[in-house]
Amino acid sequence: MMLDTVRDITTPELIEIRLHPAGFLPRGFAFFIDTILRWLLMLLIAIPSIFIGDLGIGLFLISIFLIEWFYPVFFEVVFQGKTPGKHLVGLKVLNDNGTPISLSASIIRNFLRFADFFPLFYLFGLISMLTNKEFRRLGDIAAGTIVVYTEPAARRFSVPEAIPVPPDFPLSRDTQKTIVSFAERSVGLTKPRQEELAALLPQLSQTMHPQEPQGAARLISIANFLIGRKS
User: Per the annotation, which location comes first and is thus the protein's main one (predicted)?
Assistant: First the structure.
């Protein structure tokens, strides 16, 4: 279960981790940095190639192909999902099950950049990111990858204290995790946003007992009960 843009997953090693998908702006800034670095690298190769004649031109064209297509693949696979641009912005790319990105997945997501580019200036990729709740472009969807923040912001949060209230019925493990996650993040959300998210779970955020809190406050109270706080 997922509220907002936080994804809780369990890795194949049964380690529970929380991922925060990165949006368009930080990813665009990282891409801009990597583009500048690629162009600088091409320029460094072009200068000596000029003095080698036709052989130099041939080598330069080959280097352009390799840099354009394998620059991100090399860094993502060797440096744990981080190109220089992603590293500077605080992002990394993972398989969507939370494991480090594989060589095949990196090749697929980067080689499909041409599909994201169509019809002009990555319009398809932008539309895909804006319509996907995890901001995944076409290459990410095809490769089964996700770009996330390196340091999950939610680690700074904790469940705010409130009078513990037990839920009206037994909750699954995923639902319990969702409620605790919401409570942890609630301190960084506006009240209207809290109520908007709480409305996604009306069976839990609303109750027939008027003396008990309603909406987001009720979810936070349930979270206090779930983590074992006493009144």
Answer: membrane
